[in-house]
Write a structure and sequence with these properties.
Blueprint: H1 3-11, E1 21-23, H2 25-31, E2 38-43, H3 47-58, E3 61-66, E4 71-76, E5 84-90, H4 96-101, E6 111-113, E7 120-121, H5 126-131, E8 134-135, H6 142-145, H7 149-160, E9 163-164, H8 166-175, H9 184-195, H10 200-210, H11 212-216, H12 218-221, H13 236-254, H14 265-275, H15 279-287, H16 296-306, H17 311-314, E10 316-317, E11 323-324, H18 328-342, H19 347-358, H20 362-368, H21 375-385, H22 388-404, H23 410-429, H24 431-435, H25 443-450, H26 456-470, H27 477-491
Parallel strand pairs: 2-5, 8-9
Antiparallel strand pairs: 1-2, 1-6, 3-4, 4-5, 6-7, 10-11
């Protein structure tokens, strides 16, 4: 289904007694000739009745978003297609023009009368702003009345390539403290949209210039100016922003198969050569939405944003001047999870963030050996990280690239790529042999065979057997029993002859 087909359906229900207007970002996107999947409609009142008519016609789902404010949503889901969200809201002011002036930005304050689709209503001059690449708030009170618009300003400026005018910048800075009264859910939703951008680092730089970081995310602001020893060439905050940019480049090449013409072309070409065979698998991995509809890619970028958040708190300087950050992974996990709870992320999302951030040094450690990881090491990697081991691969590559920046040594890049390739190969090509070998024995088998009582020793033996299977040392039930006997004799001094 296309946007114009939906508009044709909604237009059938527009009358002089019940005018319906298309407003907001969907109108802006039409001016830019972009397809929109979020369509906002306003009318004087009675949104539920209209939404029911539209939902019945389109065979779509219907939800009441806010009964008191007369707001209703229709969700169109078609298999294999991106869903459409149709929001129907009653006027928030006395009339249409007052409603438009009460919106966030002038480029979002344009309306189309569905009784006459050629009739565009633009009292705020939004079309001119869009043509002149300018972002202006509708009113001086736009941000103080709803501070979450501050985050939206950074997102729109980056995604549409707009210049924020000076008065709007002043109003933003005056309203920053108001972000503390915004619900975690609304902040989370805007943060996710920023993570979906193609240039998240620029949006974060804008937010920092607004003064948002020390108010909303002081743990990120604390990374600014924290120096690091070689091979890092940048302080922690600048390194993080560059890593985000490198991740976006890697994602575009390894997942979306978009050719990158930037100065990182040779680095990306090598990555594509060595990991391109897993592009379809990676695409499937990131195409699968989370149960709440949010995207795994956004979580990966959020994990990268916080992967070094613990460094300012554990930074030490050795006698020889070397700077160290021992244990920063665990502290970064703790910082991220505290923030994730405040932002009302789901338990599943927090588990993913925990695994990615907590495991982000694993590939670096394996690559330090300069050789392909052993089957045993690969098994342990995925035993600990599960499917998140796939995400850690991309994060680690971006992290390594940003560590050296333009001075990335060829051998180091080869080692990181070889390690990542070995892990992906095992996960997607040899899952039964290396990643998840079948169980040859159960806990009951061990209890009967060796007259053992229930306890953690049985779990340890089962894990030893599976690890040995993954390493190729055990292939049969008899070999598993023999290995268990040897393990018992060595570790517990128990003889079961």
């Amino acid at each position: 289904m296309r946007e114009n087909e939906i508009l044709d359906v909604v237009s059938r229900f527009a009358t002089n007694e019940r005018p319906i207007y298309l407003v907001g970002g969907s109108v802006r996107d039409r001016l830019l000739r972009h397809e929109s999947h979020d369509l906002d409609f306003i009318l004087p009142s009675g949104t539920y009745d209209l939404a029911c008519q539209v939902a019945n016609t389109l065979k779509a789902d219907l939800f009441v978003l806010d009964d008191q404010r007369d707001t209703t949503r229709v969700v169109i889901r078609k298999e294999g297609q991106e869903q459409f969200l149709l929001d129907f809201a009653a006027f928030r002011a006395a009339d249409l023009e007052a409603d438009l002036w009460a919106r966030d930005f002038r480029i979002n304050a344009i309306a189309i009368d569905l009784r006459d689709p050629n009739h565009w209503i633009d009292p705020c001059g939004g079309a001119i702003d869009l043509r002149e690449k300018r972002l202006r708030a509708c009113l001086p009170t736009s941000f103080s009345s709803d501070p979450v618009r501050i985050l939206r300003a950074a997102r729109l400026a980056v995604s549409l390539g707009l210049r924020i005018d000076s008065a709007t910048l002043q109003w933003i800075r005056e309203a920053v403290d108001g972000l503390l009264r915004i619900s975690g859910e609304r902040v989370r939703d805007e943060l996710n949209r920023i993570m979906e951008l193609g240039n998240t680092a620029l949006a974060l730089r804008l937010l920092k210039s607004f003064g948002v970081l020390p108010v909303l995310w002081p743990e990120l602001d604390a990374m600014d100016g924290v120096t690091q020893s070689p091979p890092h060439v940048q302080p922690v905050w600048e390194h993080t922003l560059e890593a985000l940019t490198r991740l976006e480049s890697l994602y575009s090449v390894l997942v979306e198969d978009i050719r990158d013409e930037t100065s990182g072309g040779l680095v990306l070409a090598k990555a594509s050569l060595m990991l391109g065979r897993y592009r379809e698998k990676l695409r499937e991995h990131y195409a699968a939405p989370l149960p709440n509809g949010r995207k795994r890619k956004s979580l990966l970028k959020l994990a990268l944003l916080y992967h070094d958040a613990g460094k300012p708190l554990v930074r030490t300087v050795e006698e020889d001047g070397r700077i160290r950050f021992l244990g920063h992974e665990d502290l970064s996990v703790s910082i991220m999870l505290n923030r994730a709870r405040e932002l009302a992320y789901s338990n599943l999302e927090m588990d993913i963030l925990r695994a990615i951030i907590g495991g982000h040094m694993r590939i670096h450690s394996l690559a330090d050996a300069g050789a392909n990881p052993s089957r045993r090491a690969i098994y342990r990697y995925f035993r600990d990280l599960g499917v998140c081991g796939v995400d850690v691969g991309l994060l680690s590559l971006a992290d390594a690239w940003a560590t050296y920046s333009y001075g990335l040594p060829e051998q180091r890049w080869n080692d990181e790529l070889e390690t990542c390739r070995a892990l992906y190969q095992a996960y997607w090509e040899k899952p039964v042999a290396v990643v998840d070998p079948p169980r040859l024995l159960t806990g009951e088998d061990l209890k009967r065979q060796f007259a053992l009582k229930p306890g953690k020793i049985i779990g340890e033996m089962l894990e030893m057997i599976r690890e040995s299977q993954a390493a190729g040392e055990i292939t049969t039930r008899e070999e598993a029993i023999a290995a268990a006997r040897t393990w018992l004799e060595r570790s517990k001094g128990v003889s079961n002859e």
